[in-house]
Amino acid sequence: MATKERVLEALRKVKAPGGGDIVSAGLVSEVVIASGRVYFSLYANPQTAKALEPVRFAAEQAVRALPGVAAATVTLTAETAGAAPGKGVGQVKRIIAVASGKGGVGKSTTAVNLALGFQANGLSVGVMDADIYGPSVPKLLRLKGKPELIGSNTLKPMENYGLKVMSIGFLLDEESPMIWRGPMVGSAVTQMLTDVAWGELDVLVVDMPPGTGDAQLTLSQKVPLAGAIIVSTPQDLALIDARKGLAMFRKVNVPVLGIIENMSYFLCPSCGTRSDIFGHGGARAEAERLGAPFLGEIPLHMDIREKSDAGLPLVATDPGSPHAKIYRDIAAAAWSQAESAQRTVPKFVIE
To answer: Most buried in the list 13, 116, 134, 310, measured by CB within 10 Å?
Structure first.
């Protein structure tokens, strides 16, 4: 079985330019191993990257020769912590994170339909599934298979409904548990940003994992996010965690584009009676209290759930429905906020 220690041991036999080995020289990024596949990058100065190609090839061959390694992908990157966006997101005009303080609030369903709302409003859109532990985007967009490799180190995003899509779910077995420590999560998020041929996009929607952990911090460090959208249900328990998510993004200088209240109310399809199953208006009140824009309410409805489970997102497959219009209106409001927001990558200082 391949382990990080064995990979690093093999890489210590690969010579670095100027002497020594590439591990001791600090050229090797965090090593990620998934289902026998090994991923890592070699840090390179842009001016000398071409000269490092033989080193990259030697490192790749050294790892591939290890027992238990099914494949190895080694990339050259000019990025270090806090650096500017790499080649993968260099042509993306704006990156918007869709986040929630806790799971189970419909964040991924909202992110996918929001991305399709941006597209319906005339934008070119990609979706990056950064929910490493529970990737839902492949199912929501009815995508299966492995991404095509372009050259030796760049993945071509999958496509459906006119969206460019990348998810860790494409690279791993669906039933494999993700038992990864924080640095591995950060490395995976970085590679999906920089080693994917996103091309020219108006917006890349990033479906974040719930909480305020490594994926959020990595994304905040690596790219100048246009902003974050917080998804919450109306009840107090969800709003407590949504509050933490909003505070985290503000702490790292990411504009909060607004709050969405999902599962806001339920209209009985038979009698038309409205029921506020999880309460109502909590997210709007919280947005007003915290000085954040309120982007809109999305009802709890069977059509949204059924189409999401079937990989037939409502905005794409039933664009004339009232719920599709809600997503498009929220996308328009979020885009208006993103166009007016300005943000730079923060510097993190540990005292």
So the answer is: 116
